[in-house]
Amino acid sequence: MKIDRDQIRMVIALFVVAVIAAAVTGLTDIFTREPIAAAQRQALHKALQQVLPVHSNDAQAAKITVNGTTIYPAKNSNDQLTGLAWEVTAPDGYSGSIRILVGLRTDGSVHAIRITHHRETPGLGDGIVNNSAWLDNFVGQGLTSKTWKVQKDGGDFDQFTGATITPRAVVKAVKGALEFFHDHHDAILERVMLAQTPDKTTTNGGQH
What is the pTM of this model? Predict the structure, then answer.
């Protein structure tokens, strides 16, 4: 059988291109992986500072896992627990899932919440990020201190003009975080006590 040299050259050329492309992709991943991870850690650190009470430890380093949920405990200089934070997801936002970092005090009330990811409509649903007064409505609230629905559904939380789905999803998700704390309270505290305390790093938490 006659060998077509042009076809052989084409196959070799395609193989070389594929190898080079794979190498470039691999090297790009290697060189960008750590900077991306560092940026994500810094973003989480900033968000934790906003939702947790004042603390002296590195909440990220002290993280624990309870029932599949990663929890970031805040402790003071005496190694006493001052609060906890974890991320919840509202799957029913208007434009997709909304991720919310919820910070709780040790009595189970909300210290603060922050939206970490959303795709809601600018000028309408994005009030969950830009409307600080609305976010402050959650501060100090516990599972039984509010009716955890928007006013349109007979609850205590405002909805935005022209946007009900977004705040409804957030309120439901935050309520879910409070229910999680109530249902797993003992397990959470046990894991916090058992976890080895990392080196303390003074932080400026407590802002909201």
Answer: 0.76
